Hints:
Elements (H helix, E strand, L loop, with lengths): L2 E5 L5 E5 L25 E2 L9 E6 L4 E6 H8 L7 H11 L11
Parallel strand pairs: 3-5
Antiparallel strand pairs: 1-2, 4-5
Amino acid sequence: MASYSVSVSSGNSFNVARAAAPKPSVNQEKTVVAENLSELADVSVSDLPGSDNYVLTYDATLAKFVLVPADNVLSYSVADSDLPDDFITQLDTDLDDKIDLDGGTF
């Protein structure tokens, strides 16, 4: 720290000192973006490359997204014995005249 002596024409004298300059600090925030599902904290997947025919669903008990076999999705949805009406209507339209049920003779 440098010290300077300053005098004014009126005869008064002052000592002036420059305080140390504050050291600048830099805070850098880094946002990390996941490139893969397995890098996310709330996703629990194992063997993702070998998981064809799986659907990513949220498991509330684990508080994470998990992979569920696609074949099980419809089974899980009818666990309460109630499918959405628009789903049933779409099935009726899609399967109309494609399934021939023979009731036999009486």
